[in-house]
């Protein structure tokens, strides 16, 4: 088991792709509006110029009156721009940007620093994808699906104890958790129990994958060398 950094990186990469796609849409909107309503292009140019003026005079102690005048001019230009957009049936915020998530504007984080629900959803999708690639179906698995009646009566108590150990391990899993080693013959439930643990800890915010011993050794050697 590893932590969720890999899923986080993939989720953030997906958000970056979303932002890039929306920026293309926003740029096309601006070009179309500029073509159809040249006055808006002129207004935007004047607004950029006014911002430059404010920056240039901001450090001057005697610039308060000039700054107030620039702000009034800027507000008048913004009002004119909004009126043109309204009359065109586009909405005042049509050129403000295109965002798939209106809460975080596709950054993954809210203004107070908390993770946005869209990022949490992408993380869950990435973790579920990782499990599926490892041969684990997150939706289908669950400890309730482990059927003790499939075992001979004389083995059920032992298997119930093993099942309870796995449940406890999964519910309390952390980065400091010790390893569990499953031993037994073919068809005794080792792989299935491991997949149930993987699915459970994934829901708690960890990445998980199922590897054979040979695959695990090969992966460690690759990281080492």
Order of helices and strands: HHHHHHH
Report the mean per-residue pLDDT as an integer. Answer: 85
Structural class estimated from helices and strands: mainly alpha
Shape estimate: elongated
| SS element count, helices | 7
Calculate the terminal CA-CA distance, rounded to whole Å: 21 Å
Query: How many individual β-strands?
Result: 0
Poorly predicted parts: none
Q: What can be said about the biggest beta sheet?
A: none
> Radius of gyration, Cα only, in angstroms?
29 Å
**How much strand?**
under 5%
Query: Roughly what percent helix?
Result: 55-70%
Q: What does the oligomeric state look like here?
A: single chain
Structure overview:
The protein is mainly α. 61% of the residues lie in helices and 0% in strands. The protein has 7 helices and no strands. It has helices at residues 5-36, 38-57, 64-87, 117-133, 153-171, 190-203, 213-224. The model has no long low-confidence stretch (mean pLDDT 85).
Give a brief rundown of this model.
With about 220 residues, the chain is mainly alpha-helical.
List keywords for this structure.
225 residues, mainly alpha, elongated
List the helices and strands and how they pair.
Elements: H1 5-36, H2 38-57, H3 64-87, H4 117-133, H5 153-171, H6 190-203, H7 213-224
């Amino acid at each position: 088991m590893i932590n969720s950094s890999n899923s986080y990186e993939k989720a953030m990469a997906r958000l970056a792709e979303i932002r890039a796609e929306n920026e293309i849409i926003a740029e096309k909107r601006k070009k179309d509006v500029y073509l159809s309503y040249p006055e808006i292009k002129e207004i935007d140019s004047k607004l950029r110029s006014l911002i430059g003026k404010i920056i240039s005079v901001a450090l001057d102690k005697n610039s308060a009156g000039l700054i107030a005048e620039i702000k009034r001019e800027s507000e008048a230009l913004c009002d004119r721009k909004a009126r043109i957009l309204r009359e065109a049936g586009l909405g005042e915020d049509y050129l403000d940007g295109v965002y798939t998530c209106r809460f975080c504007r596709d950054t993954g984080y809210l203004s107070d620093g908390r993770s946005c629900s869209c990022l949490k959803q992408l993380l869950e999708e990435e973790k579920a994808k990782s499990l599926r690639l490892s041969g684990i179906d997150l939706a289908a698995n669950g400890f309730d699906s482990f059927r003790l009646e499939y075992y001979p009566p004389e083995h059920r108590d032992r298997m119930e104890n093993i099942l309870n150990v796995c449940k406890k391990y999964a519910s309390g899993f952390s980065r400091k958790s010790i390893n569990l080693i499953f031993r037994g013959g073919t068809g005794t439930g080792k792989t299935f129990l491991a997949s149930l643990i993987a699915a459970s800890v994934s829901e708690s915010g960890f990445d998980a994958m199922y590897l054979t011993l040979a695959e695990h050794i090969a992966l460690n050697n690759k990281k080492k060398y």
